[in-house]
Amino acid sequence: MKDTERDLADCVGAIYQAGAGDGSWLDVGERICRIMDARRALLILDGSGGPRNLLMPADGSETAYSVYFHARDPYAAKARYDFATARAYHLGNAKLGASAPRTWRTAAASRS
User: Fold this and answer.
1) Which of 80, 79, 70 is nearest to 42 (CA)?
2) Contact 22/31 with Cβ under 8 angstroms?
3) In sequence order, what are the beta bridge partners of 45?
4) What is the per-residue pLDDT for 101?
5) What is the pLDDT, as a whole number, of residue 55?
6) How far apart are CA 67 and CA 54, in angstroms?
7) How far apart are CA 90 and CA 66, in angstroms?
8) Residue among 70, 45, 68 nearest 55 (CA)
9) What residue ranges of the chain have pLDDT lower than 50?
10) What confidence score (pLDDT) does residue 59 get?
11) How many other C-beta atoms are found inside a 10 Å radius of the C-beta of residue 38?
12) Cα–Cα distance between 112 and 92 in angstroms, integer?
């Protein structure tokens, strides 16, 4: 097995371990950066303290991005409002593919 394939397999294993609580998301971030030859890796989780990156400690650029874009994201704001006002409805009524209302499918098709 090539080193890249082994690194990818190890990274997938690290993701499963982190997701199960037996590993570190920061380790996953380091692995992704090494495999992709990248400086940053992002997996944003929205929590009570606001959005945060699970894969790397925050730096100045991430903070500036969050302050500007997350405050102005109309889709996220609408989703937060909809979910907060009708949580029980949204949890039990997700629609995918052909079961989605026709207007949703038409809108999704026009965006792609």
Assistant:
1) 70
2) no
3) 52
4) 64
5) 95
6) 17
7) 26
8) 45
9) 105
10) 83
11) 11
12) 27
Lookup: tokens for 63: 């903070």
Continuous H helices in 1-112: 3-19, 25-36, 60-65, 71-72, 74-85, 87-92, 102-111
89 vs 92: CA distance, rounded Å: 6
- Residue 37 gets the label, from left (phi > 0), alpha (psi -120 to 50) or beta, of left
Q: What is the pLDDT of residue 24?
A: 95
What Rg, from alpha-carbon coordinates, does the chain have? Answer: 18
Tokens coding 99: 């079961």
Q: Enumerate the β-bridge partners of residue 47.
A: 50
Return the pLDDT at 105: 45
